[in-house]
Amino acid sequence: MKTIILSIPYTMSARNILRSDIFRILKSNFKVVVLTPLHADNNFRQEFATDNVVIKDLPRVESIFYKLFRRTLDIVEGYYFTRKTRIETLLILRECLKKTKPVTYWVRTAIGCLFSPLLGTLRTLQGSFLQSSYYDRLFSEYDPVLVFLTHPIAIEEFAPAFYAKRLGIKLAAMIHSWDNVTSKSGIRTVTSNRPGRMLPLDFDKVVVWNDIIREELTSYYGYAKDDVSAFGVPQFDSYYNYKPSSRKDFFKKIGADPEKKLILYAAGSSFLLPKQDEVIDIIVKAITDDKFAASSQLLIRAHPGTDMTALRNKFSGCAKVLFSEPGIANAALRCSKGWKPVDGTQAALADILSHCDVTVNVSSTMSLDAAVFDKPIVCVGLDGYKNLPYHKSLLKHYDFTHYKYVMDTGGVKLAKTPEELITYINDYLLDPSFDSSGRRKIREGLCYNPDGKAGERIGRYICELVGAV
User: Fold this and answer.
1) Residues 257-280 as b or e (16 or more Cβ within 10 Å = b)
2) What is the pLDDT along the chain (469 residues), one digit of tens a residue?
3) Count of CB atoms situated within 10 Å of the CB of 305
4) How far apart are CA 26 and CA 234, in angstroms?
5) DSSP string, 195-252
6) Between vectors from CA 281 to CA 276 and to CA 287, what angle results, nearest 5°?
7) Three-state SS across 62-77?
8) Distance of CA 89 to CAs 73, 94, 213, Å?
């Protein structure tokens, strides 16, 4: 049986890949070596380890020299990629950094300008920093025919990528999410002021969600169209293959009133929306003051991987406010312990989306999740009771390249004021079919072919890459 190496750097990668038909097909056709920070977690091993699935560490490179080198290279790549591609997201982020942290902006610009002529050499040179006895032993012992990366801009995946390239092993990757190509490689990133980074090297094949991302890779990285394949969103497959709870059982489970409308607020990170409590307060007051067309209640779903204590403390006294905290499998973060075996996180979200009446989110992929269920979508475009200047405001996120497509479909409403937030929720409570045609465009354009078989298509494609089918 041939062996493949499957890299799983983040908990969300485990959910998207290991809890999908991708993994089911791969472990039926190969010996699979899973590389993950969760390699020693007993719950993780209990769920995924089998006779032909070996779970190994995906270590960080601890060399201080590499860390300094990589930090410099991040700056150079961010400067270069922004200037080369002129991607709208990166241009906006560049201007934001210039206005909010001018010294940082000019230092990075100077470093980028100085070293960008050497970019090709620097990118090649980093492979020499990534050699280790750990990977020498791993590749020698298992002799893989394919290395498949699931989050190829995660620094942990660079070492196995360079090893595969140096040894002549077929190397493929899956772009983790719909925004990665256009928002992760600039002079700063969306979710922090740290510089972004480019994909580390040229992969033999790349798997993406949709044809939009496919076109981005051909345009910005020079891939041939035959080397990039769109198959859909594997984590959405469960939405088409689950049996929803009854409304009565679901509302009882979350402590809600089945006679009232349910508004889902999918919280964003505090970096994007520092005064999120004010936005929630606007909705809560509208509920308590009966400003909506029907008696309603609010379910606040925490941003994956964030602490919900402050929001609970502020709103837990209101009987019409409920809370949902997604499991660690929903978070895009590195974690070495705390995995929950057979965690029904995605099924729980499916139940929420199935039974809620309106969804509200903060510039989130949740717009896509809601569109799959054809649920009304209101996007938060206000910063609290008082809006901030554009370069500090949440509003700029809806001009980002990946989100512009969502906005152009007409499938969502963007609330820029408290009044608009209440009005749009009300409109959808009165007529949930409103903007349904736009939500269909979101499904068709961004989810490729949402039929519950994306994982199967990806799994079979990987098999075909090494002649296993």
Assistant:
1) eeebbbbbbbbbbeebbebbbebb
2) 899 999 999 998 998 999 999 999 999 999 999 999 999 999 999 999 999 999 999 998 878 889 999 999 999 999 999 999 999 999 999 999 999 999 999 999 999 999 999 999 999 999 888 989 999 999 999 999 999 999 999 999 999 999 999 999 999 999 999 999 999 999 999 988 999 999 999 999 999 999 999 999 999 999 999 999 999 999 999 898 788 889 899 999 999 999 999 999 999 988 889 999 999 999 999 999 999 999 999 999 988 877 788 888 888 778 789 998 887 777 777 887 788 765 556 778 899 999 999 999 999 999 999 999 999 999 999 999 999 999 999 999 999 999 999 999 999 999 999 999 999 999 999 999 999 999 999 999 999 978 999 999 999 999 999 986 6
3) 16
4) 14
5) -----SS--SEEEESSHHHHHHHHHHS---GGGEEE---GGGHHHHS--PPPHHHHHH
6) 140
7) CCHHHHHHHHHHHHHH
8) 20, 9, 14
The CA-atom distances, in angstroms, between 286 and each of 190, 248, 428 are 31, 25, 15
Distance CA 32, CA 144 (A): 9
State the DSSP H helix or E strand holding residue 147, giving kind and residue range, or none if neither. strand 146-149
The enclosing H or E element of 146 equals strand 146-149
List the strands of the sheet with 358-361, edge to edge: 321-324, 296-301, 261-266, 358-361, 377-380, 413-415
β-strand 170-174 against 146-149: which pairing, if any? parallel
Distances (CA, A) of 144 to 31, 39, 41, 158: 9, 19, 24, 17
Residue with tokens 């206000």: 382
Structure tokens at 42: 């007993």
What does the alpha-carbon distance between residue 463 and residue 453 come to, in Å, rounded to a whole number? 16
- Written as six digits, the tokens of 444 are 């068709």
